[in-house]
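Progress note, sequence design subtask.
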């Protein structure tokens, strides 16, 4: 499995796991409710421990599902905001999301560890996120701005995987700088 599909698949798999955790957590909570009603009529309370454990499991699953879902939603929000910031500034991202810089940095680090952002690291000196495959960081030959080639047209394409904006040559196929999904410049 290549790195591009690996990043996108991690987000998709994490989203599926989040939904499964929520469904199972809700199902177990419903079982606990039904079991608790049944225990009220049972004078021995023989299943009380079982239903307590099941209740704790349901709470844990619901908590993890909600937390994972929020992280995926936050990843998509960060990807969109970072795509419009050429400096990839963590300070600006924190300001735009109304969150502290430390929280944003920790969230980004968690997203990098989970593989949501590919080829990425946090530059603590510049306080920014760096995409090692970012077109802005690659050295390119100097181009005379007075010369324009009308056959090369860059268009902005929104990634269907994460929602980030990417510039790509019209008629070409590339990959999202943020999640690695395939994008096409139609």
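Output:
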């Amino acid at each position: 499995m290549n790195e591009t599909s690996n990043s996108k698949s991690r987000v998709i798999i994490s989203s599926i796991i989040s939904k499964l955790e929520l469904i199972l957590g809700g199902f177990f909570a419903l079982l606990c409710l039904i079991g608790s009603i049944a225990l009220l009529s049972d004078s021995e309370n023989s299943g009380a421990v079982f239903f307590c454990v099941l209740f704790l499991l349901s709470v844990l699953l619901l908590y993890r599902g909600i937390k994972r879902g929020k992280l995926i939603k936050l990843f998509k929000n960060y990807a969109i905001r970072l795509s419009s910031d050429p400096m990839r500034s963590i300070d600006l991202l924190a300001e735009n999301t109304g969150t502290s810089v430390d929280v944003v940095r920790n969230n980004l680090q968690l997203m990098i560890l989970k593989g949501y952002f590919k080829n990425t690291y946090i530059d603590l000196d510049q306080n920014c996120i760096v995409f090692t495959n970012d077109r802005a960081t690659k050295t390119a030959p100097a181009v005379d701005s007075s010369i324009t080639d009308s056959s090369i047209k860059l268009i902005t394409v929104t990634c269907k995987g994460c929602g980030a904006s990417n510039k790509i040559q019209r008629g070409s196929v590339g990959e999202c700088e943020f999640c690695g999904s395939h994008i096409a410049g139609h």
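Residues 3-41 form the longest helix (39 residues). Work on this subtask will continue into the next period as scheduled.
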